[in-house]
Design a protein that fits this description.
By secondary structure, the protein is of the alpha+beta class. It has two domains: 126 residues, no CATH class; 145 residues, Trna Endonuclease, Chain: A, domain 1, CATH 3.40.1350. The strands form two sheets. Strands 6, 7, 8, 9, 10 and 11 form a six-stranded mixed β-sheet that branches. Strands 1, 2, 3, 4 and 5 form a five-stranded antiparallel β-sheet that branches. A hairpin with a 7-residue loop joins strand 1 and strand 2. The longest helix has 25 residues. The radius of gyration is 20 Å and the shape is globular. The chain starts with a strand and ends in a 5-residue tail after the last strand.
Length: 287
């Protein structure tokens, strides 16, 4: 299947034929990129109504979350076949346009040839929307700041990278810069991500999907360098009892145990002691 990009517009009123370009989506067999302009959506809120802009943003966030899910699957070799299972096709965009009550209008699918989608996508976005494309970031919280402080105070800074930022140029398979809470190597790669399970569900699922993309990229890196299989963990905050976040955490315990461990935040001392006693080195020394 050919790669393509599709511009995303908002109509400037339900009865108006005028529309404003607010975002861009690019689809290839390797990844899906979605970006929209918060400034232009805010402009629509002023021109049309806040309710109109709120609906548009909600649909665009849904698309962004779906792209994160697809990218997490695509990072795992052989787990998904683009032609059969990929949701990002012409029919999907027609469905989304109806779902948004024609608030969002998708342009024509344009063939998009590139060997470096993240870089080419940013250039195309900035050219078409005439504004800088800020990278999509997972939300950091007080919980993650607390974990960062504890890790830095533990005295393992000479053996492990803490709050380490990795770019697609450094690690194949990433789609944006990503910061991981802790990463080191001792025969195999060891990575830990602090994730706050008291975040809203969209932010939480984005963080989980981003970590799975990172795991897929690190596994490819390990195979390339003939390392042993990596070890990955999530440090989680305790979600509110009965919440959707608690249900998701319980589900993850069951279905993700072969991919990564889930550990409560008080396990941080266990992790830092493991680093101190082992023959670990910073992951950054391998790049």
């Amino acid at each position: 299947m050919k790669s393509f990009f599709i511009p995303t517009y908002l109509k400037l009123g339900k009865l108006s034929e005028e529309k404003l370009l607010v975002g861009l989506i690019a689809v290839t067999p390797q990844s899906v990129q979605v970006k929209y302009s918060a400034k232009r959506i805010q402009l629509c809120a002023q021109v049309v109504s806040p309710e109109y802009a709120h609906l548009a943003k909600a649909v665009l966030e849904q698309i962004q979350n779906k792209a994160s899910e697809v990218n997490a699957l695509l990072s795992k070799s052989g787990e998904i076949h683009f032609e059969n299972n990929h949701v990002f096709n012409a029919d999907y965009f027609q469905y989304l346009q109806k779902y948004s009550q024609n608030t969002i209008v998708f342009g024509n699918l344009e063939v998009f040839n590139t060997n470096n989608l993240p870089s080419a996508f940013v250039g195309l976005y900035e050219s078409l929307l005439n504004e800088k494309a800020e990278p999509l970031k997972t939300v950091k919280s007080n919980f993650q700041a607390k974990i960062k402080t504890s890790l830095k105070a533990s005295g393992i800074g000479d053996k492990a990278d803490i709050e380490f930022k990795i770019s697609p140029d450094q690690l194949a398979g990433l789609y944006n810069d990503m910061t991981v809470s802790l990463i080191a190597k001792n025969g195999s790669i060891f990575a830990v991500e602090a994730i706050d399970f008291n975040h809203g569900m969209p932010a939480l699922t984005n963080s989980l999907n981003a970590f799975e993309v990172l795991i897929g990229s690190l596994n490819q890196f390990s195979k390339l360098h003939k390392f042993k299989a990596g070890k990955y963990s999530i440090l989680n905050s305790i979600p509110k009892s009965g919440s959707e976040q608690e249900k998701l955490l319980n589900h993850i315990f069951k279905v993700k145990k072969d991919l990564y461990d889930v550990m409560p935040e008080d396990s941080i001392e266990e992790i830092t002691n493991k680093i101190k006693k082992g023959n670990y080195q910073k992951f950054s020394t391998l790049l």
